[in-house]
Structures are given as C-alpha cells and as structure tokens.
Amino acid sequence: MNMDVISQEILWTALKWGMTLALLLYIGFALVVLRQVTMMTDTLDVGFEKPVRFLAYVHLLFAIITFLSAFLLL
Amino acid sequence: MGCMPEVYNSHTKPKKSIIKEQKVREKRLDAILSDKSLEFKKKSKNPLTAFGYFPRKADFETKDKEEHVILLLRKHPITNARWIIASLILIMLPTVILFLPTINAIPERFMVVGILGWYMFILAYIIENFLSWFFNVNIITDERIVDIDFHNLVYKEISDAKLDRIQDVTLQMGGAIRLFFNFGDVIVQTAAETPNIDFHAIPNPDKVVKILQDLLLEEEQEKLDGRVR
C-alpha cells in the first residue's frame, strides 16, 4: 500500500517535470512561429499583416501563460 | 537657388503623376482582359479572397516597382474544410473526456494544465493551417507568373517565369467537389529554370487560363510593337 503511494508520487513528479519541460520547449516553438510570420509578411504584403502578427503574439502569450501555470500549479 | 527645385524634380516624380500613370496602365491592362463574361471584373478589396482580381494591395518580395499584380490566387476556401472540422472536433473533445469516469484519477491541477496545453496545441494547429493557406499564393502580374510556397516553418520557395517564357497552359479539373465548387489546377509549362509552375486548387481555373492567354497575346503584341520592358 505504502509502495503504491510512493510510486504514484514518483509518477506525478515525473509527469510534472516532463510537462514543464515540454511547455518550456513549446515557448521556443511559439517564437519560431512568430519569426515565421515575420518572414511570411515580409515576403507577401496584402494588407492583412497586423491581424496575422497579432495571432502569432497571442499564441506566444498563451504558451508563456501555460508554462507559468504548469510551473506554479504542479 | 533656382536650380534646386529642378534637380529635386528630376529625381523624384510627383506622386500625382505616378498615380495617374498607374491608373492609365491599369486601364490598359483591364482593356486587354476584355472578356465581358468575366463577372469578377470588380477590383478585389478583400485581403482574404482566394481570387483577387487587381487586388488593392499586393506586394511581394521580388516585385518590380512598375509591375502590376493582375491576379492573386490562393487555394479555394473549401480546401480548408478538413482542418476547420478537425479543429472543431478537437475543441469539443475535452468536454467529452470530462464525462469519462476514469478522469477522477487525475489530480485537478494536472487537469487544468492539461486543458490549457490542449487548447494551445489546437491554436497552433489552426494558426499553422491558416498561415499555410494564406501565404501560399500564386500571382499573375503583367510581366510574369510567380509561385510563393512555404513548405514548413522555416523554408520558403519563390519561383517565377516571365510571360514570354510560357510554353503551355494546362487546366485540370475533376471530381465532384471540384466541379461543384468550381476549382482546379492550372499547370504552366515554361522554358524558364523552373519547368512547371503549378497553381493548385485555385478557384475559377478557366478564367485564370483565359487571363493568361490574353496576357500572352498582349506580350506578343508588345514584342511586335517594340514596347518590351
């Protein structure tokens, strides 16, 4: 019974750090998306660049919020 | 002192005359594309259109100052249906999972972070698919055809061919959905470095071919008249 509790605790701790690390890496991906959007808008300008850039910033902000919530809540 | 404005004028054209020049050229191009059946002859103002005829704003990296964009083409909007439906299903999935009895075994804090991560993943999926549709375009100008492709996150490919290098234009249209929504492929064979420039799943492919033919005729006429730029 005691062993079960310990192994469960190890599982959740491993999951916590795994998720936190994955979300940290995801922020890197969100930055790549932002860079990609900048490259795309530099290549083609049709008058819809601001909303597209805004979307990429929202995505980056979402990634940072999710990482912080994982870091603080878990 | 009196010479100064003259020197200044010789280097910078007054803005009004540039606009007038552009309008004259646009009118001439419009006259070339003289098919009265072209119902889309209205100038396109919507930046999200898949068939932009004389789009109000369309600049691309390799565009010349004097070059005019006649058509800006994207894949038909219906080609986005698959990822839009998939996104809607993915958005609703957590509400279904929350009703499963085994979900109680997961601590609440993990659930909160898991759901946030899930929606972040969906947002990324939507953004990637939208960007792919929005920025992968085909452009027809009065001088050439341009194909702009973004294959993944960091790779882009811009291929172009001058109109006088075009050898053959093929229209491919088949399947019930394509016929119903009137979209298809236009394959342009060229004598340029890129042998084929493909316009995939574009709306009104027959009209695109017609415009290309008109422009090719005009290009030949320009050559005969010695008006080649």
Describe this structure in a few short sentences.
The complex is a heterodimer of chains A (74) and B (229). Chain A is mainly alpha-helical and 74 residues long.
Describe the structure.
The complex is a heterodimer of chains A (74) and B (229). Chain A is built from 2 helices and 1 strand, in the order αβα. Chain A is mostly helical. In chain A, helix 1 (2-43) packs antiparallel against helix 2 (49-73). Chain A is rod-shaped. The mean pLDDT of chain A is 90. Chain B folds into 2 domains: 15-75 and 136-225, Roll (PH-domain like), CATH 2.30.29; 81-130. Chain B is 43% helix and 23% strand. In chain B, the strands form 2 sheets. In chain B, strands 1-3-4-5-6 form a 5-stranded antiparallel beta sheet. In chain B, strands 7-8-9 form a 3-stranded antiparallel beta sheet. Chain B is elongated. Chain B has 229 residues and is an alpha+beta fold. Chain B contains 6 helices and 9 strands; from the N terminus they run ααβββααββββαββα. Chain B has helices at residues 3-11, 15-32, 81-97, 108-135, 176-181, 205-225; strands at residues 51-53, 59-60, 69-73, 137-141, 144-150, 156-162, 166-172, 183-190, 196-203. In chain B, helix 3 packs antiparallel against helix 4. The model of chain B is unreliable at 1-12 (pLDDT under 50). Chains A and B meet through helix 1, strand 1 and helix 2 of A and strand 2 and helix 4 of B. Strand 1 of chain A pairs antiparallel with strand 2 of chain B, so a sheet runs across the interface.
